[in-house]
Amino acid sequence: MSSTDESSLFLTAIKFAAVKHRDQRRKDAKATPYINHPIEVADTLWQIGKVHDMVTIVGALLHDTLEDTDTTPEEIQNLFGAEVLAVVSEVTDDKRLPKQQRKLKQIEHAPHISTRAKQLKLADKICNVYDIAHSPPKNWSLKRRQEYLDWSEQVVAGLRGVNPILDAHYDATLSDARAALARSISV
Ligand code: NDP
Ligand code: ZN
Which of 46, 54, 71, 77 has its CA 20 to 30 A from that of 180? Predict the structure, then answer.
């Protein structure tokens, strides 16, 4: 793919995700626009993980569209192709399952997903762990935030080994998040 084609695909993806998430907000107290999150995940892959594979980057921009919006697999297939659909599908939870079962499935599936999906999922967990420390869902107790960090660590155990820079960045982000939560107990 030429760099012009890649830029075009990138812009189509960011516009598509912005439209699909247009009425959604993150769960933090400031109700940050949802689109900030997929952009952050794509940026983490590119800048920190040095992942410059456009299928993974476009997958990151679209990673919550199947799970959280009315987007269909056909739309993704038609606009972005089968490889992007494959990676987005791999990081999409089955919302028909009860939440606790979905959380367990993420732990079980992590070691078996593709290299692209592992890196995407790892960047997603890095961003969410950072948010749990710095802009957590409002009304979450400390215990719930700690449980989220523990659960993410179990998922990430199955994602390790494909991108050592992202592995190390997750470890540092988790350690900072635990320190921030510990500080909030002691004040
Ligand atoms: P949810 O899946 O409901 O919420 C976390 C998800 O919300 C993230 O993975 C992220 O997903 C998205 N998100 C949106 N905004 C933010 C933000 N500001 N910061 C971080 N994430 C955000 O989590 P659960 O209800 O499953 O809770 C997590 C843990 O807490 C589990 O281990 C569960 O067992 C435990 N729990 C504890 C309770 C308690 O009261 N102690 C009650 C319920 C659960 P994405 O990137 O996909 O948008
Ligand atoms: Zn996400």
Answer: 46
Q: Is the minimum distance from the CB of 136 to ligand 1 under 6 angstroms? A: yes
CB 143 less than 6 A from any atom of ligand 1: yes
List the domains of the chain with CATH numbers.
3-186 (1.10.3210.10)
User: What span, in angstroms and rounded, lies between the C-alpha atoms of 181 and 185?
Assistant: 7
Secondary structure in 3-state letters for 134-179? HCCECCCCHHHHHHHHHHHHHHHHCCCCCCHHHHHHHHHHHHHHHH
Residue-by-residue pLDDT tens, the chain, 187 positions: 898 999 999 999 999 999 999 999 999 999 999 999 999 999 999 999 999 999 999 999 999 999 999 999 999 999 999 999 999 999 999 999 999 999 999 999 999 999 999 999 999 999 999 999 999 999 999 999 999 999 999 999 999 999 999 999 999 999 999 999 999 876 5
Contact 82, 129 (CB under 8 A): no
Q: How far is the CA of 85 from the centre of ligand 1 (A)?
A: 25
Distance (Å, rounded) from C-alpha 136 to C-alpha 27?
A: 7
Is the model's pTM score more than 0.90?
Answer: yes
